[in-house]
Amino acid sequence: MTRPSVKRLAKLAKFSRKTTIAIIMVCVVLVTIATLVILFSTPERRIKGRIEALAHEYYEDYYYDKFTASVAANKREELLEKYSERGFSEVPLRQLLFYDNGKHASEADELGQYCDINTTSVRIIPDSPYGKTNYHVEYKYSCNF
Length: 145
What we know:
Blueprint: H1 2-40, H2 43-68, H3 76-81, E1 91-92, H4 93-102, H5 108-114, E2 121-126, E3 135-140
Antiparallel strand pairs: 1-2, 2-3
């Protein structure tokens, strides 16, 4: 009986070493990836990504509904088509931060460190078929990256 249990322990020890080495290798790979992401995540990329997210949220969750609220559903396409070439008026970053009772006001200081929140702006241009997610955005950055 002692012989089989010694063999089992030996197999278990080999399995444990292999498992330990595999876990260490996975950890090294994950740490390397995390380090590279941090190194290549520049303030410019981070700030531009945040402004893009704010613009999309503003249009999809706020402006589209407000703009089309007084128009019948079958007339929305006709209404939005008028803006498909030039787009709506520019929306300053300040408005993206403070619309809907200051929804993103807490981000003003961070974004204001890099960008002028009064002159950085976006222009939203609806695209056919003129649904809530059918649009593109032009960005005008006034930032010091």
